[in-house]
């Protein structure tokens, strides 16, 4: 009986955590790209969310490279994907970057909540031709 008292709360906690809304940022950019004469490199990401209250029209993603932020635009003919051109000078061989996504969600009543999500840090290496 004592064992059953321990199992039930743990099971309920597991079910609760599994049913919570989740948001996941997926980096779609290769880790290595060939040197581009324009110095502009396409960085892409995907946002997966199970949050039903998320206002998709309010999603505002950015690529953060050092102290610089680059606004991302929706990828044509794709849903929940964004892209941005990031400049990399000819003297740099790699950059570190991450994604930051600001968004709004519906709360009870007519109020809107604001949220933000930050991805892991990624590396992009530029390979000489």
Characterize the structure shown.
This protein has 129 residues and is mostly beta strands. It has a single domain (22-127), classed as Sandwich (Immunoglobulin-like). It is 14% helix and 53% strand. It has one helix at 2-19; strands at residues 23-27, 32-34, 40-49, 54-65, 68-71, 73-74, 81-87, 94-106, 112-118, 122-127. The radius of gyration is 20 Å and the shape is elongated. Residues 11-19 have low confidence and may be disordered.
Helices, by number, come to 1
As for the CATH topology, it is Immunoglobulin-like
**Uncertain ranges:** 11-19
Strand content: over 45%
Rg estimate, integer Å: 20 Å
* CATH architectural label: Sandwich
Compute the average pLDDT: 87
Main sheet makeup: 6 strands, mixed
Q: Give helix and strand order, one letter per element, not per position.
A: HEEEEEEEEEE
CATH level-1 class = Mainly Beta
Coarse shape: elongated
Number of strands: 10
CATH superfamily: Immunoglobulins
Identify the notable features of this structure and list them briefly.
129 residues, mainly beta, Immunoglobulin-like, 1 helix, 10 strands, elongated
TL;DR of this structure?
The protein has 129 residues and is mainly β. It contains 1 helix and 10 strands. It has a single domain (22-127), classed as Immunoglobulins (Immunoglobulin-like), CATH 2.60.40.
SSE diagram, text form:
Blueprint (H helix, E strand, L loop, with lengths): L1 H18 L3 E5 L4 E3 L5 E10 L4 E12 L2 E4 L1 E2 L6 E7 L6 E13 L5 E7 L3 E6 L2
Parallel strand pairs: 2-10
Antiparallel strand pairs: 1-3, 3-7, 4-5, 4-8, 6-7, 8-9, 8-10
């Amino acid at each position: 009986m004592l064992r059953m008292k321990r199992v039930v709360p743990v099971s309920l906690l597991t079910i609760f955590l599994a049913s919570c809304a989740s948001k996941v940022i997926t980096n779609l950019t290769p880790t290595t790209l060939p040197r581009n004469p324009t110095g502009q490199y396409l960085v892409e990401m995907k946002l997966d969310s199970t949050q039903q209250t998320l206002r998709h029209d309010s999603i505002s993603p950015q690529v953060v490279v050092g102290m610089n932020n680059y606004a991302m635009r929706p990828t044509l003919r794709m849903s929940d994907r964004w892209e941005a051109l990031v400049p990399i000078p000819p003297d740099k061989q790699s950059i570190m970057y991450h994604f930051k996504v600001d968004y709004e969600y519906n709360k009870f009543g007519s109020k809107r909540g604001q949220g933000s999500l930050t991805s892991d840090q990624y590396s992009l290496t530029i390979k000489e031709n």
